[in-house]
Design goal:
Glutaredoxin, 2 domains, single chain, 10 helices, binds S-(P-nitrobenzyl)glutathione
Length: 215
């Protein structure tokens, strides 16, 4: 059965591919699995039919053969476990790739999100500048060791994996900030991932939603 995911009917990112359906689309493209998309409005996300799929009333969700999942990381792990292409066969390498998936979501993404939230929710506070400087340093404390571990390799642990897919998805939220530019190797890592045909197909698909909605 073709899986169905949900995405914003009108994404606030205006087609920049930052909403979390993008990472699920990308994973599906990497493994060559066709998918359908149900677009939801903000009101629909908070209505009972969607809340039955996603207790927090968010996107993305994933439905397939009576299985309903929410949380982009869990969805991608499910896709990667069921199809070849995103997790190595070797048990140790597979565990390490999953390790990087969790590192992306639990260790690298939180300070990036906190900094982003401060950027729009606390901009008018007189302590904003001081807080941003502190949050920038928290992000730096994640990027420096990540760049050191990546070194001059293409991907975090051998072949491209779901760990890279999630790590790049998280780092993309820093694009346009000086923080990513401080680490040319990480900026190149993001660019390398974005050059993958599967990424391009996923990006084009989510952009088409924005373009249709803004006609
Ligand atoms: N932990 C969950 C996951 O990884 O799946 C988080 C899901 C989540 O945050 N979903 C967001 C959502 O549904 C969309 S992706 N928000 C609506 C709500 O909570 O009511 C987050 C997002 C939103 C907008 C932008 N943007 O405009 O740039 C970027 C990312």
């Amino acid at each position: 059965m073709t899986p169905t995911i949900t995405a914003f009917e009108n994404s606030p990112d205006r087609g920049r591919g930052l909403a979390r359906d993008m990472r699920v689309r990308w994973a599906l493209e990497e493994v060559g699995q066709a998918y359908e998309v149900r677009l939801v409005s903000f009101a629909e996300m908070k209505a009972p039919a969607h809340l039955a799929l996603h207790p927090f009333g968010q996107i993305p969700t994933y439905e397939e053969d009576g299985l309903a999942l929410f949380e982009s990381g869990a969805i991608i792990l499910h896709i990667a476990a069921r199809h070849a292409g995103l997790l190595p066969e070797d048990a140790g390498a597979r565990a390490r790739a999953i390790n990087w998936m969790f590192a992306a979501l639990n260790t690298v993404e939180p300070p990036i999100l906190e900094r982003e939230t401060a950027g729009y929710a606390e901009r008018d506070k007189d302590w904003h500048g001081e807080r941003v400087a502190m949050l920038d340093d928290r992000v730096r404390a994640r990027l420096s060791p990540l760049a050191a571990r990546l070194g001059d390799a293409d991907w975090l642990d051998g072949a491209f994996s779901a760990g890279d897919l999630l790590m790049v998805s998280v780092l993309q939220r820093l694009q346009g900030s000086a923080l990513l530019a401080e680490h040319p190797a990480l900026a190149a890592y993001v660019a390398r991932a974005e050059a993958r045909p599967a990424f391009k197909r996923a990006f084009a698909a989510q952009l088409a939603v924005f373009e249709r909605s803004s006609r």
